[in-house]
Amino acid sequence: MLPFARVTIIGLGLIGSSIARAVREYMPSVRITGHDVSAEVREAARALKLADDVTDTAGAAVTDADLVIMCVPVGAMAAVASEIAADLPGDAIVSDVGSCKASVAAALTAHLPASQVVPAHPVAGTEQSGPEAGFATLFRGRWCIVTPLTENDEVSVERVAEFWRRLGADVEQMAPDHHDLVLAVTSHLPHLIAYTIVGTADDLQQVTQSEVIKFSAGGFRDFTRIAASDPVMWRDVFLSNKDAVLDMLQRFSEDLSQLQRAIRWGDGDALYDRFARTRAIRRSIVDQGQDDAAADFGRKHD
Ligand SMILES: NC(=O)c1ccc[n+]([C@@H]2O[C@H](COP(=O)([O-])OP(=O)(O)OC[C@H]3O[C@@H](n4cnc5c(N)ncnc54)[C@H](O)[C@@H]3O)[C@@H](O)[C@H]2O)c1
Ligand SMILES: O=C(O)C(=O)C[C@]1(C(=O)O)C=C[C@@H](O)C=C1
Questions:
Q1: What residue stretches are annotated with the Prephenate/arogenate dehydrogenase domain (predicted)?
Q2: Residues 180, 101: contact at Cβ < 8 Å?
Q3: CATH number of the domain that residue 78 is part of
Q4: 119: domain range?
Q5: Pair 154, 84 in one domain
Q6: For a designed S-S bond to 229, which of 6, 106, 127, 199 qualifies (C-beta 3.0 to 4.6 A apart)?
Q7: From ligand 1's centre to the CA of 111, what distance in Å?
């Protein structure tokens, strides 16, 4: 049996439109309703036939939903929750896809105290945004971390987990705070580093007259992809997951200082040991079949 019959998606950008496409593909009998605050996005969503119905207000989108998924930037979750509160059916489950969980869970439960709020985070994405950027296979073979709250009943959590399994994701459960700490190092810090290094190189470009960009090879190009990610989304992630990110940034700065010291004092053994350790980590990830480039190619071409 399908976990939900009527799904409402609020925020029809990269993630919301990918969910809509995936629901169409893998659960075709489910009725999809969509809403986005942007009239331009709503028009695009209608043209792309992402949903059975695209409404002009958030309230109108939820009136007969049995699952509502918030796919807006994490800083907009509270505003959307307050907009839908009066129209949300009492038995509808509310979930979200935000990149950090503790602050979003607090915002959603504050505005929707009578509802089952079951937060989740598909650990899958790209540097693109908007309704045209989504694709149905985005979640296939990727983790979706469900972060249940103490007030959740088991059936609601299982229905949300089953929804993500149907979209092709592997589901794991974690406490919201633990999720935020893990993702601070595996996702948030890498983005902060990419934003920094590309900005630094661009500043340098004023001095070297375009050589930085012109001669940038593999490593720097990879950073530019990450640094092209959506500025609103990432501004909100860093403001919402402040403590965990600052904690990880402190550790990172200490490790960077150690490498700086090794370079200054010619300590080749320290450099070699660190690089050998990280090479082994990458190889073990590839051995486990988690090489993103290969996986992304597979998903987009099947
Ligand atoms: N991009 C990724 O790689 C990725 C991966 C996993 C999770 N996420 C999370 O998914 C969420 C959406 O990210 P995205 O990449 O789809 O962004 P996006 O910019 O592509 O889409 C967000 C959409 O939300 C709409 N929106 C903003 N405020 C709104 C409001 N008040 N009411 C209704 N609609 C509103 C915007 O108009 C936009 O269309 C974020 O919370 C992000 O943290 C992103
Ligand atoms: O592949 C990318 O472009 C991503 O940045 C995806 C990525 C990640 O860091 O892994 C980004 C943010 C999300 O919350 C989940 C996934």
A1: 5-293
A2: yes
A3: 3.40.50.720
A4: 6-174
A5: yes
A6: 127
A7: 19
Closest ligand, as measured to the CA of 55: 1
- Looking at the fold, whether 165 and 182 belong to one and the same domain comes out as no
Token duo for residue 256: 């960077």
Our answer on whether the CB atom of 128 is closer than 6 Å to any ligand 2 atom is: no
12, 14, 33, 138: residue to mutate for ligand 1 pocket, most atoms within 8 A of CB: 14
- ipTM of this model? 0.99
Q: 296: exposed, middle or buried (C-beta count within 10 Å: 0-12, 13-18, 19+)?
A: middle
Ligand 2 contact, 216 CB (< 6 A): no
- CB-ligand 2 contact for 125 (6 Å cutoff): yes
Question: Total domain count for the chain?
Answer: 2
DSSP character at residue 71: -
Tens-digit pLDDT string for the chain (302 aa): 999 999 999 999 999 999 999 999 999 999 999 999 999 999 999 999 999 999 999 999 999 999 999 999 999 999 999 999 999 999 999 999 999 999 999 999 999 999 999 999 999 999 999 999 999 999 999 999 999 999 999 999 999 999 999 999 999 999 999 999 999 999 999 999 999 998 887 787 766 666 776 777 678 888 989 999 999 999 999 999 999 999 999 999 999 999 999 999 999 999 999 999 999 999 998 887 655 544 453 444 33
